[in-house]
Specification:
Number of domains: 1
Oligomer: single chain
Helix content: 55-70%
Number of helices: 7
Amino acid sequence: MSPRAGKAAIVIGFLALCAAAFVWAGGVVAETRRQAKITDECLQSAAWLLLCYASEHDGRFPPTEDAYWDYVGEVMDAGSHTCASLPQGEEWPESPALAGASMLEPGELPEVRKRVTVNVAEKAREAKEQGTSDESGKPPILGTPGKPSGLGTLEKVNGWLKAWSDAHAVPAAPPASMAA
């Protein structure tokens, strides 16, 4: 083989390798986008159901993550959503469709639980710092345990919960030092 043919083979091999890497990267990006779309649907559904819970409980959010998931299971198992709409507000959606809450069927609960965390520990820490014992008016913080999500979705859904909390302020229990 001539030196020129050897160089051509190296260049062709390098170009083939680059093309393969490009195709592989495109597949990775497409799969990540698909996974992010599913996670976003789960986040939006979880946020919608948190708003429903608060609407049905005088503005209070669930006190624990287990209480929330129990509520979600009951709602999904019932097959009907008692919360078809929420009071009008500028900062939160008024219906499941506007929320993008498409993961509301009973068989979808495991997927939602796998992709969404409902952090109520942060509420308890804030209440302790403020000297109150009742944090049920504070919204939980939704997260995604290492799952991809679309840009801005976490901020959007947590913004809905914060706006609801601000608009439906729940009177806090007095500090423990004043209760005695």
